[in-house]
Specification:
196 residues; alpha+beta; Alpha-Beta Plaits; SH3 type barrels; 5-stranded antiparallel β-sheet; 17% helix
């Protein structure tokens, strides 16, 4: 774990806003736990990046540990030319590069996070799930169970169905206990545009 002063800055180079960066934006899906190391590498190469991070507190053996961790585990956003993209790949810290087709939308979305983080807002990761999305339970007595996520009267429910009979039942579930997965028979159900 890095000491506070060893953490890379959220934005490189320092600018009033990431909107001032020149070039195309890309999303680097990093190798495991390589987000900060990649940020340091990009600083050394003077390549513009945005790495949203937030403070998290863990309690371990009567000790309180405060760490600055990436808000989106495994992702770093960078902006540059084709040559800078090649330089990024040479770091050997990237598992995959995601091309951004709609540059304007990504910049608009990133600026919101930048504004909140610069203001010191304590952002916490939140699962991005859709109504009708196929999910799997990742903890608790229902571990491994899969179904469709719905919301009713303020609670989140996992719907289990028997298509042959056209019958279904649901169980209340904590949103922190599920993760999205690919549906076994095609895409998520209709109506999946609305976040839970």
């Amino acid at each position: 774990m890095l000491k506070i002063g060893e953490n890379p800055p959220l934005v490189w180079p320092q600018a009033e806003s990431i909107q001032q960066f020149n070039g195309l934006w890309w999303v680097a899906h990093t190798k495991s736990r390589n987000e900060k190391a990649l940020a340091h590498d990009l600083m050394g190469k003077n390549i513009s990046y945005f790495l949203p991070m937030t403070w998290r507190v863990h309690h371990h053996s009567h000790r309180t540990i405060k760490a600055l961790l990436p808000l989106f585990t495994g992702y770093l956003f960078f902006c540059g030319s084709e040559n800078e993209r090649v330089e990024l790949l040479k770091t050997n810290r990237v598992a995959n590069l995601i091309e951004v087709k709609d540059q304007g939308t990504l910049i608009h979305e990133l600026v919101r996070f930048e504004q909140a983080l610069r203001a010191g807002a304590p952002l916490t990761p939140y699962k991005y799930l859709h109504k009708g999305q196929w999910c799997r339970v990742i903890a608790g007595p229902l571990l491994g169970l899969e179904g469709i996520i719905v919301q009713t009267k303020g609670d989140t429910r996992l719907v289990l169905q028997i298509n042959l009979l056209g019958q279904a039942a649901s169980v209340e579930i904590d949103i922190d206990m599920i993760e999205p997965v690919e549906a076994p028979h095609g895409p998520a159900a209709p109506g999946s545009e609305n976040p839970v």
